[in-house]
């Protein structure tokens, strides 16, 4: 095997805080090399340096036999390196094909004037998508109208369309379902056969063991070690990541009382994305709403928070409520932790503190003044609870690692006393230790009498945590399962019901 990338004594600090310390890394041509580590370990930062988006403070990088010092992403792309971001970098207002060709548009001459050749770009996009077996993305749609999964696939297609020989994927599967992940893995194996080298980041360790040849573990900005995947097991990887052993992935179930009379009752609720939804949510219950991407469960969650129009009847503690906007939901103690944290969950330019207090000003302010002391206490307690890694409570949210951003979103709702928490993919991008904390948080909440609606594509999570499972397919509820005697297959069967002809 030939070495394609060699990193020697690399260091990087952000405003005095060292986030990468003396990194040494060697990547062989044609391998799939996994990079793992807890939230904030430095994975994305290292990837951005390799891809020319950030400069290191010191250290040497050798790529494909020569020393490199990329000063822009374009230079890296021209050398054959492309990076698929953890957080989407697509332009929401542009279509799928315009995004794929952004910055390198195909043009045609017409009387000596250059025109953007939309037709060719569209055709080329379809070819790229087809080559990698991605068939059902509407290439004309504006990216802002795509599901998170389709955004991710567009991002991947964009990188693949530049014919890179070194592909970096920062948590590409976080937003994908099982089936889409398998599709992606087929694509990766295909690329590997074409001698493309792949760096692959994921918090789902099963995936690492399925796809990678080698794995490098980062902890607190340092390389803990590199291992061949068939010479290590999952427990050992976790040990290297967190520096201690973590026996169980799910905390012991906390017995919690579920009241019989419903807290929330939904009757004949319909919208663009779901039809005639009926269910009862009982006090102190974790109700999972499972389904494949596009089944309508996410939109249902958003409607119950007043983010989307819907028709039908919703009553809370026996009283009809009109969830016309989020303020109504919040007033009634209903909160949503959304799937797409960048769209709905966070104001990226503001600090952790402001993000935390903006939705909580009703109890963190008096006569229009923020109660600074209360505010600090509240932020700190959420940060401690979730073990969020921030340099200070004033750190800008866009400078946090992906997983820690997610924790800020969760933390601001924890500060309130909710009646109902709607959690949409709450552990996406969250490291294994923090996942455990979030599961414990959920048990803690239900044992206090809070009800949780859990929307998740991780079937293990659904089966382990919930008290009851509703499954949706094509906008309808296709069945109810008891997690105690159900399997992943049972969920999947109901999730595709009505889809097969
Ligand atoms: N632009 C920046 N300014 C200041 N600090 C930053 C910046 N970018 C990253 N950091 C800090 O560097 C550290 C490493 O972040 P990084 O995004 O590399 O982590 P990660 O391993 O990718 O985590 P995750 O799994 O949560 O995505 C974090 O503590 C983060 O807050
Ligand atoms: Mg990251």
CATH architecture of the largest domain: 3-Layer(aba) Sandwich
- Which sheet architecture does the biggest sheet show? 6 strands, mixed
Helix content: 25-40%
Number of strands: 24
Structure write-up:
- It is built from 18 helices and 24 strands.
- It is an alpha/beta fold and 501 residues long.
- A hairpin with a 2-residue loop joins strand 19 (365-366) and strand 20 (369-370).
- The model has no long low-confidence stretch (mean pLDDT 89).
Short description:
The chain is of the alpha/beta class and 501 residues long. It is 33% helix and 26% strand.
List keywords for this structure.
501 residues; alpha/beta; Rossmann fold; 3 domains; 6-stranded mixed sheet; 26% strand; binds adenosine-5'-triphosphate; binds magnesium ion; cell membrane; AAA+_ATPase; ATP-binding
């Amino acid at each position: 095997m030939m070495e394609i990338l060699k990193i020697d004594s690399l260091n990087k600090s952000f405003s005095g805080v060292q986030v990468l310390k003396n990194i040494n890394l060697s990547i062989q041509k044609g391998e799939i090399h996994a990079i793992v580590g807890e939230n904030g370990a430095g994975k994305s930062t290292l990837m951005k340096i390799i891809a020319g988006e950030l400069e290191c403070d010191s250290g040497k990088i050798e790529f494909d036999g020569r020393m490199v010092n990329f000063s822009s992403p374009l230079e890296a792309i021209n050398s054959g390196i492309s990076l698929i971001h953890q957080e989407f970098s697509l332009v929401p207002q542009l279509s799928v094909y315009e995004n794929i060709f952004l910055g390198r548009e195909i043009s045609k001459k017409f009387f000596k004037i250059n025109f953007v050749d939309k037709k060719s770009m569209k055709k080329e996009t379809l070819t790229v998508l087809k080559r990698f077996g991605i068939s059902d993305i509407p290439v004309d749609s504006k990216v802002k109208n795509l599901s998170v999964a389709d955004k991710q696939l567009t991002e991947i297609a964009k990188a693949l369309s530049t014919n890179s020989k070194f592909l970096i994927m920062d948590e590409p599967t976080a937003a994908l379902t099982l089936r889409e992940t398998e599709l992606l893995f087929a694509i990766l194996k295909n690329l590997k056969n074409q001698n493309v080298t792949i760096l692959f980041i994921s918090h789902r360790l099963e995936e690492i063991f399925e796809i990678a040849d080698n794995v490098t573990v980062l902890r607190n900005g340092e390389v803990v070690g590199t291992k061949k995947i068939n010479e290590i097991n999952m427990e050992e990887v976790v040990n290297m990541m967190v520096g201690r052993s973590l026996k169980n992935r799910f905390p012991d179930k906390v017995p919690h009382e579920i009241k019989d009379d419903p807290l929330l009752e939904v009757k004949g609720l319909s919208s663009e994305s779901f039809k005639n939804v009926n269910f009862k949510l009982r006090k102190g219950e974790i109700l999972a709403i499972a389904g494949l991407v596009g089944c309508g469960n996410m939109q249902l969650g958003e409607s119950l928070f007043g983010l989307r129009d819907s028709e039908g009847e919703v009553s809370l503690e026996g009283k009809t409520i009109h969830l016309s906007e989020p303020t109504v939901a919040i007033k009634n103690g209903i909160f949503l932790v959304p799937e797409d944290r960048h769209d709905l969950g966070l104001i990226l330019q503001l600090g952790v503190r402001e993000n935390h207090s903006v939705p909580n000003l009703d109890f963190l302010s008096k006569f229009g003044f923020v109660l600074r002391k209360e505010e600090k206490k509240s932020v700190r307690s959420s940060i401690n609870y979730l073990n969020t890694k921030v340099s200070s409570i004033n750190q800008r949210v866009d400078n946090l690692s992906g997983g820690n951003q997610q924790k800020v979103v969760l933390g601001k709702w924890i500060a309130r006393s909710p009646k109902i928490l709607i959690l949409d993919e709450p552990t996406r991008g969250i490291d294994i230790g923090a996942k455990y904390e979030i599961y414990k948080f959920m048990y803690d909440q239900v044992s206090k009498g809070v009800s949780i609606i859990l929307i998740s594509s991780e079937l293990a999570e659904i089966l382990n945590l919930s008290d009851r499972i509703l499954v949706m397919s094509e906008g309808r509820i296709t069945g109810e399962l008891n997690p105690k005697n159900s399997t992943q297959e049972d969920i999947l069967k109901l999730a595709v019901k009505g889809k097969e002809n």
